[in-house]
Each structure stands twice: as structure tokens, then as C-alpha cells.
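Appendix B, example 12.
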Amino acid sequence: MVHGTPGYRGTRVGVALGSAPRNQSDHSDAEQLPRIRVPYWCSKGHETRLVFLKLPDEQIPMNWDCPKCGLPASRDPLHPAATRPDDEIFKSHLDYVKERRSSQDAELVLAGALERLRARGVLPDQLLGDA
């Protein structure tokens, strides 16, 4: 059995066939702005091409993080951007917590949280095996 599909598949409700959506004119001005494609190279040789509005050269960033490896990339392929110092490398939330608290502090915080859960009856002692 063959099911017919309506001719309106893929169109929005309220839009006649062959006509543009009503809010299309809102975006047409933005699409006409002049743009430029700027290449960036990291020290590993990865090339990234980004699209910017056509602005004066000093308003376009000289460095950009490489999306492939995370290293800084520059606009000059012969002189890649300097690598970041080790203290500027990406840190996770856990890394920041470890900077603020020692292992002993973490044990105290955990013990306090477990005690509050036990007092509310949410966490029975037999689940943790510390009777």
C-alpha cells in the first residue's frame, strides 16, 4: 500500500509554497554584511579559518585557541603563538577544588555531609558498610 505524502513536507505552517517566511527580511540585512575569513595556525601546524565581520585589522584577534589541540594559534604561519605557561592550562572544577582544600579538609567535608544525610534518614549506615 502506497501512502501519499502532502506537498507541504518541510515547509512551515502558515507559509505559502514558494514564498519566504515573514521574518526573512529580519535576517537578510545581517547576511549582506561584509565578512572576511582569517586563518590561524598553532605550533602543531593545525590551520583554523574563522569568519569575522570585515573590521579594521587591529580589531581582529591576533591569537585564537586551536579547536583541535587547544594550543594558542596566531595569524602568522611562520611564527606560531607562544605556548601558555603551565599555570594557565585548562583546569577542571575538581582541580580548582583541590587548590582550595587539602585532603584532610575534603575528608572533614565528606564526613559532615554523610552525617547530615544519615540524620535525615536518607543514607542508612549499612549502605556504606561502616556500622
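The first strand starts at residue 35 and ends at 42. Residues 7 and 117 are 60 Å apart (CA to CA).
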